[in-house]
Specification:
3-stranded mixed β-sheet, YefM-like fold, 78 residues
């Protein structure tokens, strides 16, 4: 395990990232107190599309204009 202070971590970030990527444990500290562990990113997985398929239906008039809504956006220009 390698413990480095924040200023050293800023100056050597690329090297520290390479160490972590190769399996080394790196801890970043401030005033000799461990703050954070530098870890390899683990993807959460692919997004799942279609979670609401079959659970929601759009009304037939969803694209129709609404006079009240138009008045709110554009004002009453009649």
């Amino acid at each position: 395990m390698k413990i480095v202070n924040i200023s050293e971590a800023k100056a050597n970030l690329s090297k520290l990232v390479a160490l972590v990527y190769r399996g080394e444990r790196v801890v970043i500290s401030k005033n000799n107190l461990p703050l954070v562990d530098l870890v390899v990113h683990k993807p959460e997985g692919a997004r799942k599309l279609g979670l609401l398929a079959g659970k929601f239906t759009a009304p037939d008039d969803i694209m129709d204009e609404d006079a009240e809504m138009n008045a709110m956006f554009y004002g009453n220009h009649a």
